[in-house]
Amino acid sequence: MSGTVEVRREGAMAFVTLSHPGRLNAMSRAMWLALRSNFEALSADEALRCILVRGESGAFCAGGDISEYPSFRFEEQSLRTFHEDEVWAGLQAMLDCPVPMVAQIEGACMGAGIEIASCCDIRMAAASAKFGAPIAKLGFPMAPREAALVQRAVGDVLARDMLLAASVHGAQRLYEAGFLLQVVPDDELPAAALAHASRIAALAPAAARLNKATFLALNRSAASELVPTAYRYADSPEHREGIAAFLAKRSPVF
């Protein structure tokens, strides 16, 4: 199983569920492609008023599916293709979506998970949820546009700590930083997120779409200027060592 991104329509709402059993919904390449195609389709649905984004089985998304990485990450062009044509294309489809989005965050929200959550308009989390982007342990950086997205959403201090120190933070810390609208007891999150999404869906849809267009215009970033040189680390020893250590379940030596 390479994982799926499932979409279910119910009235004026859509439910998008990240599903990768046994991997805490880690994003595979197939899932990134599905994320893009699904959100492009949702964007074209003029009857849609709100989208609830969630993960399956008590986790949001634990990051990328690292078991796939040795097959493409150590060559610059294939690495660039992955981040720019697959990952960023999926995230951009979310950012371009004119429909309000609510993220229901449980369990692990790491790396790719925090990028996906950063694309949502409203984020609500279970009290036990954990957040971070500890890819420094894997020997590689976050791609420029992905890092800019996370920095805007979580704030400069936490973004730097997550990426430079591989720190993982609890839901309360992310609430204090302004990333989360609300932190609720674990067993209350599904109902609370659904109630908030339903509240949005009951309001004026044209006004919501205009507000989203304004937010998108305000958040455009110059990070794309860094893309031409961003993937030169592909064949570096620390990149290879970080991924090899993770897959071998040992500590990396940098």
From TrEMBL:
Keywords: Lyase. Gene3D superfamilies: 2-enoyl-CoA Hydratase, Chain A, domain 1, Lyase 2-enoyl-coa Hydratase, Chain A, domain 2. It comes from Variovorax rhizosphaerae. The lineage of its organism: Bacteria, Pseudomonadati, Pseudomonadota, Betaproteobacteria, Burkholderiales. SUPFAM superfamilies: ClpP/crotonase. It comes from the Bacteria. PANTHER family: ENOYL-COA HYDRATASE, MITOCHONDRIAL (PTHR11941:SF54), ENOYL-COA HYDRATASE-RELATED (PTHR11941). The keyword Membrane does not apply. InterPro entries: ClpP/crotonase-like_dom_sf, Enoyl-CoA_hyd/isom_CS, Enoyl-CoA_hydra/iso, Enoyl-CoA_hydra_C. CDD domains: crotonase-like. This is Enoyl-CoA hydratase/isomerase family protein. Belongs to the enoyl-CoA hydratase/isomerase family.
